[in-house]
Amino acid sequence: MTLFGPEPTETPEDTPWYDVVVCGGGLAGATFARHLRRKQPDASVLVIDGQTYPVPLAAHKVGESTVDIAGFYFSSVLGLADYMADKHLPKLGLRYFFGRAGEPFANAPEIGLSALPGRSTYQIDRGVLENDLYEMNCEAGVEIGTGSMVREVDLGPGSASHLVHYVDGDGTPRSARCRWVVDAMGRARYLQRKLGLQRPTEGQFNAAWFRVEGRLDVEDFVSDDNAEWHERVPGRRRRLSTVHLMGPGYWVWLIPLGSGNTSVGIVTSGELHDIDGMSTLPGAVEWLERHEPAVASALVHHEVLDFLAVRDYSYTSSQVFSADRWGCVGEAAAFADPFYSPGSNMIAFENSALIELICEDARNELRPERVDELSRFVLGQNDWLEYNIHSSYSYFGEPLIMALSFLWDTLLSWTTATPQIYNGIFLDEEKAAAVRSATPGLYALTVQVKRLFKQWERKAGRGRDFRFIDYYKIPFLREAYERNLVEGKSVDELVADHRHSMEVLEEVAQAIFRIAVEDTMPERRAHLDEHPWLNAWAIGLDPERWQTDGLFKPSTPPRSPDRAYTSLTALFDAPPAEPDTTPAALPIELRL
Questions:
Q1: Is residue 167 classed exposed, middle or buried when 0-12, 13-18 and 19+ CB atoms within 10 A define those classes?
Q2: Among 64, 99, 151, 345, fewest CB within 10 Å belongs to which?
Q3: What percent of the chain has pLDDT over 70?
């Protein structure tokens, strides 16, 4: 059975016809095929897969780490909850260390979770997952041509079928016709290049990564004698996090894999770190010796299994779906940055959106404006990530600014992005319109807060310090997580959630602003105290613009940001007292 069926006169007898041909069988293509067959069991699907199975467990691939959006997608949408729990590792959130040159690793300020939260996320072993998805898809009736290479895709005009030419694993040229064609061939971006849709991003960001045999555990960087440090996260479970070792213009990842091996990556801004200095394994190890010596020392005890370096890894597009019945998913669509582990999130959004369009086409309801809307949604997610993350690299080495930036981004994710997948908001036009109406000014607020962080990094200050922040214990973040990461909500419930979230975001933005003012120009804090409720869309660190920008003329009902402010300031040591500039009293004998 098929969803569409070819026109009787259109397809020669020797050219097989499919509802969907997926070009590429990696993580994006394999999950797409599984998702489509679960949603439309009658769909005929061919995956043209360059891989042969089993694939190596270490295979140069990033994407081992998932966060809440991808966790929900794998467990609920793809129906893999039991499988993920059995074959892959639970993830203990994101974890950050801000090391200081010449100081013990135990002194590095740390952000992370001390216990697993309620919703599952995973550290996945890409080789294991892709091997198992291959078996699952074969059992589900997906036809998979392994060891095959796509040579050409002829996009049919109008309603005509597409024709995909490829060479199979035996070297035999073959062709297949289809209603929909999906590019999941990764960074080759075949359709993007064919149609001239690729767009570059600003700046150059580079990465080198490799896997090592065995367990490279950040817990081993600190002596067992330091009980206080180890007791912050009971059970030596830090390794289950995606560990980020932060520094000016760079971060290093440590990710455990279900196979027992460990992924190590170096990611840098090209403005501050030359990719040529870490483009080989010896160069990468030498770079680690200079910037993260604890990692370099640990590598001595582990065999390196693979290595790859990528220059200028970020890119985007002007279009990822078309009413002409093609789409791009995974790295064939766009790629922002590995920070915050968004790769599988984007696969979740792209696969879900494209499959929704295929289903609408099967119902004869496909509309060009609807295709454009979902294409813009996906690219909007990617392009915001790219801007937000890349503009942060310059303060990656600033613990106070980066801590508040991460907390803000986490709040933003749990209140706005993650509910999109939990409740299919972007796939339901009524829900999407209602949520947009409940979040006026959301984008402008997020941009303003980002500007605040950028202004902050250019000013002196950083008077507050911290040792350990468990971000799930922050009241407004925990409330956001528990309220918004819930599926099956009605439109009215989603509207209520988003209205509440806008209030929380506004309060937290004002609290962060007050902390930034205290840090950089404490003499101005008294003036702010005269105005307990501010215009969050006008926050900034140029006092001469406060009046002009309307900082003291809020348009929203006045509330107190004290709860958010108290929750945040409680995370940090008190700033040092201002020096007393009052002239000392003269001794009596000198007054005469």
A1: middle
A2: 151
A3: 95
Concatenating the DSSP letter of every residue in 495-539 gives: HHHHHHHHHHHHHHHHHHHHHHHHHH-GGGHHHHHT-SS--GGG-
Closest listed residue to residue 431, CA positions, set 365, 488, 506, 491: 491
Q: CA-CA distance, 474 to 278, in Å (whole number)?
A: 38
Residue 284 tokens read as 């990468």
pTM of the model: 0.95
Residue 262 is encoded by which pair of tokens?
A: 């460990």
Closest CA to 80 of 71, 69, 89: 71
Residues 439-480: pLDDT tens digits?
999 999 999 999 999 999 999 787 899 999 999 999 999 999
- Which amino acid, 165? H
- Classify 262 as helix, strand or coil: strand
Name the token pair of 365: 């309801």
The string of DSSP letters for 145-173 reads: ETT-EEEEEEPPSTTPPEEEEEE-TTS-E
Question: Which residues, other chains included, contact 322 with Cβ-Cβ below 8 Å and sequence gap of 6+?
Answer: 371, 375
Parallel/antiparallel/unpaired status of strands 94-98 and 242-247: parallel
How far is the C-alpha of 457 from the C-alpha of 474, rounded, in Å? 24
